[in-house]
Amino acid sequence: MHIMEGFLPWEWCLVWWILSIPFLILGIIGIRKIMKENREYLPLLGVCGAFIFILSSLKLPSVTGSCSHPTGTGLSTISFGVFVTSIIGAIVLLFQSLLLAHGGLSVLGANLFSMGIGGPLAGYAVYKTLKNTSISIYITVFLTCAIADMTTYVITSTQLALAYPAEIGGILASFSLFLAIFAVTQIPLAIVEGCVLTLAFKYIIQLKPEILIKLKVFSEEQIQKASAGVSS
Hints:
Elements: H1 10-37, H2 42-56, E1 60-61, E2 67-68, H3 74-100, H4 108-130, H5 137-163, H6 170-207, H7 209-214, H8 220-231
Helix pairs in contact: 1-3, 1-4, 2-3, 3-4, 4-5, 5-6
């Protein structure tokens, strides 16, 4: 969910911007390195950006009266890490706020932190934990993408709860309420997103496995094993 324009008090808007800025600085450094030294990665970077833009623009009504959307950040997180993903997320959210009325400029820092930083951080932790295990890389990709999606909504619920604690029960009660509103719709959406991005990853393995090997997304042995499984 994009928090809408003007919904958060300015103090909290500032807090989320302050927390986001270090990631953006490191992300700019990462993007500049790709542009200067590894331009062969640009097509994959474009694909990752396209998934984030398209999936996060799908505003789907929720049975709870709110609305939800996939985030699409998992593929970028696996391929380029959290910092570069934060830059892609910032660009996407800026365009969406200006052109699609999703979110807004005042809450851009908050939306960026939930979708472009917090979600990817959780997904990246899953990816790093499972990367060198015997678990299939497709299961790893699925879990990374699905958990990145779900974590985004956990953080959004936290942001709203901190800004608007309940009169009875305070922040915890408010957090539980917001999370319950989103979870009904977001759990199946996270599963669908995990499946879609896993299929996209399979296609990349078929088309350009050498890029994934150069990026050290997975080992050459893992990529070859996965490629053989796809071919068969």
